[in-house]
Amino acid sequence: MTAYTAFVRKDGDSCYGVDFPDFPGCVSAGDTIEEAITNAHEALSAHIAFMQSDNDLIPAPTSTEDALAAMDNEFGDFLLATMVRAPVKGKAVRITMTMDNNLLREVDTHAKAQGYSRSAFMAEACRRLMS
Questions:
Q1: pTM for the complete prediction?
Q2: What is the span of the domain harbouring residue 105?
Q3: Helix 118-130 to helix 101-113 angle, to the nearest 10 degrees?
Q4: Which residues contact 32 (CB under 8 A, 6 or more apart)?
Q5: Within this chain, do residues 51 and 110 fall inside the same structural domain, yes or no?
Q6: Are strands 16-19 and 27-30 parallel, antiparallel or unpaired?
Q7: In degrees to the nearest 10, what's the CA dihedral of 36, 37, 38, 42?
Q8: Which one of 32, 66, 114, 119 is at 20 to 30 Å from 73 when CA atoms are compared?
Q9: pLDDT, one tens digit for every residue, the chain (131 residues)
Q10: What span, in angstroms and rounded, lies between the C-alpha atoms of 56 and 47?
Q11: Among positive and negative, which fits the CA dihedral 52, 56, 61, 64?
């Protein structure tokens, strides 16, 4: 998961909006700040997935300080800056790891039963534990 800066704003009688300096055009909204941030996670994840399917380059996250310095009132008066995490797939790399052989046998059994390779199963387990 990669964390990107997001600005939460509210204009007049509208709902709360969320903008991402690193992803122009990716926006989210919600009736409450909490809902807007929850929706922002979904919007950013979907935006990145579409970019990856188009083989577009995913930008490295801009620090909140740099985003604030560069925004030049682009997002108007915002209420708060927050970080929104989204999955960004990188290049697969080969690793070597050590594991108890009985645990490895269980991993392989569960991976096969769920249609995963050992590597895919381990990667998914890591994603779930870190989210």
A1: 0.67
A2: 101-130
A3: 90
A4: 16
A5: no
A6: antiparallel
A7: 90
A8: 32
A9: 789 999 999 878 889 999 999 999 999 999 999 999 999 999 999 999 999 999 899 999 998 888 888 876 655 578 888 899 887 877 788 999 999 999 999 999 999 999 999 999 998 898 788 76
A10: 11
A11: negative
